[in-house]
Write a structure and sequence with these properties.
By secondary structure, the protein is an alpha+beta fold. The chain has a single domain, classed as Orthogonal Bundle (Arc Repressor Mutant, subunit A). The protein has helices spanning about 1-15, 20-25, 35-40, 45-55, 80-95, 95-100; strands at about 30-35, 60-65, 70-75. The protein has a 3-stranded antiparallel beta sheet with strand order 1-3-2. The longest helix has 15 residues, at about 1-15. The two termini are about 30 Å apart.
Length: about 100
């Protein structure tokens, strides 16, 4: 069980990072390289690369090399459906929290 807790911690902390979440949401729209991600989100390229490495290691994004370029895409088999489920859940249960409500 301890091993599961650590794996969950890594997985959910990867999603909880605002920068990584923005990168993931951008990649939901399609494949991008680091430069395109940096320009779209106005992030430094080194920060984007660092966060993409974490997302790749967790299997949330895939990388495809074309010459000197590396193109990143969302894992459409597992992460995209998971995000769609999270969207459905948060739209139903968490919208009031954003509007100034409380979880408690």
């Amino acid at each position: 069980m301890e091993h599961t807790s650590e794996v969950y911690k890594i997985f959910f902390s990867s999603l909880a990072s605002p920068n990584r979440l923005q990168i993931i949401n951008l990649l939901r729209k399609g494949e991008k390289n680091v430069t395109e991600i940096s320009q779209s989100l106005k992030f430094e390229q080194t920060m984007v690369s660092h966060n993409l490495r974490r997302l790749e290691r967790c299997g949330m994004v895939f990388v495809k090399k074309e010459g000197k370029n590396r193109y990143y895409s969302l894992n459409n088999k597992t992460i995209k459906p998971l995000l769609e489920l999270i969207d459905k859940h948060t739209n139903q249960y968490c919208r009031h929290i954003v509007k100034g409500g409380d979880c408690a």
